[in-house]
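Example for tutorial group B:
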């Protein structure tokens, strides 16, 4: 599993080399392959060439929604360089991303943002699982910026499936009893993190530079 790459192709190449994957290993991304970093198209190309699986992140979801509805109202500044560089086959790859990935043999779920505790994970909509970071006092999903006093959803998640997720950048890997957050802010000058299953061994490489404040 690879955390949020955000267009950091060089760091992704270094991480894959450090992980020393074999032909039998399956590469999976937790979403947000694109935007903010220097080479979104290059990252998507690597994912395609390696036949990697990926869950859709909020950045891919926003791009796909704009393309489907043919409107730019909800696009952000970081979206436009990505849109200009993606090839048709890249768009096809983004469109094929799953909302969640389940690995029953290891009782593991892969998602970009997270889940609402107490609600069956299969019933939760894209607007929640790609966006949630914290829960407010009423248990409603929110982003940290909108609800800085909120409780991380992962701290309240009680399984039984173990969840590996991204979306919430942290200086260190975010550990909870039944969840592991692997967005360590590569695009912000942190690290790109991967986790190897089934033993959940971490692999990290530092960012070559800070691409976004």
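The residue assignment follows.
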């Amino acid at each position: 599993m690879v955390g949020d790459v955000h267009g950091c192709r060089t760091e992704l190449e270094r991480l894959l080399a450090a992980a020393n994957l074999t032909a039998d290993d399956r590469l999976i991304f937790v979403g947000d392959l694109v935007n903010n970093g220097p080479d979104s198209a290059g990252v998507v190309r690597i994912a395609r060439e390696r036949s990697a699986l990926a869950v859709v992140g909020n950045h891919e979801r926003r791009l796909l929604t704009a393309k489907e509805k043919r409107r730019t109202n909800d696009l952000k500044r970081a979206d436009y360089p990505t849109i200009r560089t993606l090839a048709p086959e890249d768009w096809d790859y983004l469109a094929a991303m799953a909302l969640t990935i389940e690995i029953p043999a290891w009782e593991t779920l892969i998602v970009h943002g997270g889940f609402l505790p107490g609600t069956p994970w299969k019933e939760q909509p894209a607007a929640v699982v790609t966006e949630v970071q914290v829960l407010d006092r009423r248990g409603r999903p929110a982003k940290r910026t909108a609800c800085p006093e909120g409780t991380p959803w992962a701290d309240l998640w009680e399984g039984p499936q173990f969840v590996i997720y991204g979306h919430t950048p942290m200086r260190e890997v975010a550990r909870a009893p039944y969840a592991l957050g692997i967005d360590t802010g590569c695009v912000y000058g942190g690290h790109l993190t991967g986790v190897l299953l089934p033993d959940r061994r971490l692999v990290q490489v530092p960012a070559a530079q800070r691409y976004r404040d």
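The two ends are 25 Å apart (CA to CA). Compare this with the pattern of hydrophobic and polar residues in the output above.
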